[in-house]
Write a structure and sequence with these properties.
Structural class: alpha/beta
Strand order of the largest sheet: 3-2-1-4-5-7-6
Shape: globular
Bound molecules: S-adenosylmethionine
Number of strands: 7
Helix content: 25-40%
Strand content: 15-25%
Length: 198
């Protein structure tokens, strides 16, 4: 997955995802924790003003690419080997959590969201870009049908996960736009892009 990830998403990055990352991550402030940072496609976009950047990533091959990308961009960040379900961070110690294309993949999204809620300070924010279950009944039915083959192909990714609803069920107030992830298969539409607070 780590080896093919950047080439696989590259068209989508050029077709709008890169600028979407830039706008989203540009809103990060204070102590920032990114979960499932992958190969580091957000790294270049963090504002210089943030006080600390912690990048969590449980996959060793991803972490190696992440370290290389940090070095290429001359960014300072701490890379932490941890799943988002178990963040090695104190309660109420983080101003911004960033999740891009991760809540679809974590094995336990409810636990992940409660862990994010635990580490966020009062007034803290979760910034996200996530693909979610489609509003269109036809596309949602296709996502249900193709869930297992897609999950196998995309290393655990659940294309039919109702992530905004899961956020609300965890007590977050969600402000998000629905957009299309251009350059990617319809099965990963729509994307929700926004901010969740508690
Ligand atoms: C689709 S990739 C997204 C990578 C990156 N966030 C991006 O925007 O390009 C999903 C990432 O989630 C990571 N991941 C898988 N299970 C995880 C977990 N339980 N906790 C945190 N990250 C996880 C994977 O290793 C992978 O790096």
């Amino acid at each position: 997955m780590a080896r093919v990830y950047d080439p696989f998403v590259w068209v989508g990055e050029l077709a709008g995802m890169r600028s979407r990352r830039s706008v989203l991550v540009g809103n990060a402030r204070g102590r920032v924790v990114e979960i499932g940072a992958g190969t580091g496609l957000n790294v270049a976009h963090y504002p210089d003003e943030i006080t600390e950047l912690v990048l969590t990533e449980p996959d060793a091959a991803m972490r190696r690419r992440l370290a290389r990308r940090l070095q290429r961009h001359g960014r300072v960040a701490r890379i932490v080997d941890a799943p988002a379900e178990r963040l090695p961070l104190a309660d109420s110690s983080v101003d911004t959590v960033v999740s891009t294309l991760v809540l679809c993949t974590v094995p336990d999204p409810e636990l992940t969201l409660s862990e994010i809620a635990r580490v966020l300070r009062p007034g803290g924010q979760l910034l996200f870009v996530e693909h979610v279950r489609a509003n269109s009944r036809f596309l949602a039915a296709c996502q249900d049908k193709l869930l297992e083959p897609w999950r196998h192909f995309a290393c655990g990714c659940c294309c039919n996960r109702p992530t905004a609803e899961l956020m609300r069920a965890c007590g977050f107030t969600v402000v998000a736009d629905d957009v299309v992830w251009r350059g990617m298969p319809a099965i990963v539409r729509p994307l929700i892009v926004g901010r969740a607070t508690r």
